[in-house]
Every structure is written in structure tokens, then in C-alpha cells.
Specification:
alpha/beta; 9 helices; globular; Rossmann fold; about 240 residues
């Protein structure tokens, strides 16, 4: 199991109840400690793919996390390994204080309160929000909310960090801060985004989706500077 890829997906297809096909035969693997960008035009299937990594969606394929198949009996273990950060931080911030939000996951893991407190402190410090614990999350700026949402996941100490559009709706400074944060965190990361500059800065590899299929997989500095290719996939 230790030699298995962090993420292994074999021929994943998925159609929504209305019949719309979101993924069509996606096969890929992500190595441990690899940072991978997942890019594509709106509707390419990026978010749908991410939701298969912790069993929120269940398509017609085998998805494995560190060798463990994502299926009903394994969802608890899989979700401890895969930390999901959604595009809208308000989907993850719902408690009266930032500290309570960050503590929510560890408490549900039934950790001792001393360990919960230590994890909250570490997670907030790691995202540059040390001292923000008592604050109301709804009074934070968007960039601070996004970092707080990342902290809610880091407090559970996942082996894989999965992020959906982490820089969406941020100004240039905010985008730089999130990119710097993700760069500092290390570990296995898969980042779905339209922010091609962040992918070139952060990721050693990019996977390009187009209408539910992988159409390219390789070096971001090569693929994301190919203007005809970017235009053909709706990324330009």
C-alpha cells in the first residue's frame, strides 16, 4: 500500500441524472507529494472529478487513494486521507468563530480536547491566521475566509489536499497569497483552477480536461504557453 500512488483513477465516467455526461473514461495517477493542476474550461468536468476522490460522487470506475478503493465501506478512512477545500469558503465556515470551524473536523474524529486545540493552533498558524480563532468568520475578507477554509481541512491532517478554484474571485494580491500558501504547505495536492499562472508557479504537472476527457497531461510551462492548444480547449 505504501508504494501505491496517492491517487489512482481507472476509466472513470460519470453522467448526471439529467443525462449530461461530465466525465468520459478518465484515467490518471498522482504520486505522493506531487502537486498537480487540473484545468479546463467551465463544464470540462474538473469539480465532478474532484468529488469522486472522497466518495461524494460515485461513477463507473475504480478510484483508489493510497491503494484503498473509494467505496461505501472505506469512506471514513478515505475522507481522513483526502481533505477537500470547496470553491466557496462559506460552504465550510458555519460556526460562530474561526476556531470552532477549524476544530469541527478534529472533534468529529473524537480527538482529545488538548489535541483539538493544538491542531487548531497549528492549522491557523500554517495559513497565516494565528490569533484569528476568536473572530467571526463572516467578518473576514474573502482571502481570509479562503485561508480559514483551508485551515478547517488542515486541522484533520489529511495526506492529500484537494482544492477547487482556491483563487477564484480574489484580486492579484489575494491570488499570490494563496499560491504562496499552497507552495509552503507541501504534500500531495490536486488543484482545479482557471488560474494558469498559479499552476505554472505551484505545480510540476498539469492535467487538461475538455468535455470530460483528459486531452493533455504534462509540463505546465509547455502546455500552458501553447496558445493554439489553449484556444482549442477554451482556456484562452
Amino acid at each position: 500500500m505504501n508504494d501505491a500512488p496517492a491517487i489512482q483513477i481507472d476509466q472513470l465516467s460519470y453522467a448526471y441524472p439529467n443525462g449530461a455526461r461530465a466525465l468520459d473514461g478518465v484515467t490518471c495517477a498522482v504520486a505522493a507529494d506531487e502537486k498537480v493542476g487540473l484545468v479546463g474550461a467551465n463544464g470540462a468536468g474538473k469539480s465532478t472529478l474532484l468529488l469522486h476522490l472522497n466518495g461524494v460522487l460515485d461513477g463507473s470506475a475504480r478510484v483508489r487513494i493510497h491503494g484503498l478503493t473509494v467505496e461505501r465501506g472505506n469512506l471514513g478512512a478515505v475522507r481522513r486521507m483526502v481533505g477537500m477545500v470547496f470553491q466557496n469558503p462559506d460552504d465550510q465556515l458555519f460556526c460562530p468563530t474561526v476556531a470552532q470551524d477549524v476544530a469541527f473536523g478534529p472533534r468529529n474524529m473524537r480527538l482529545a480536547e488538548a489535541e483539538v486545540a493544538a491542531r487548531v493552533e497549528r492549522a491557523l498558524a500554517s495559513v497565516g491566521l494565528a490569533g484569528f480563532g476568536p473572530r467571526n468568520p463572516f467578518h473576514l475578507s474573502l482571502g481570509e475566509k479562503k485561508r480559514a477554509a483551508i485551515a478547517t481541512v488542515l486541522s484533520m491532517e489529511p495526506q492529500i489536499l484537494v482544492l477547487d478554484e482556491p483563487t477564484a474571485n480574489l484580486d492579484p494580491r489575494g491570488r499570490r497569497e494563496i499560491a504562496q500558501l499552497l507552495e509552503s504547505l507541501g504534500g500531495t495536492q490536486i488543484v482545479a483552477t482557471h488560474d494558469l499562472e498559479m499552476v505554472r508557479r505551484l505545480c510540476s504537472r498539469v492535467i487538461v480536461l475538455d468535455r470530460g476527457r483528459i486531452v493533455a497531461d504534462g509540463d505546465p510551462d509547455v502546455l500552458l504557453t501553447d496558445e493554439p492548444f489553449l484556444k482549442s480547449t477554451g482556456l484562452w
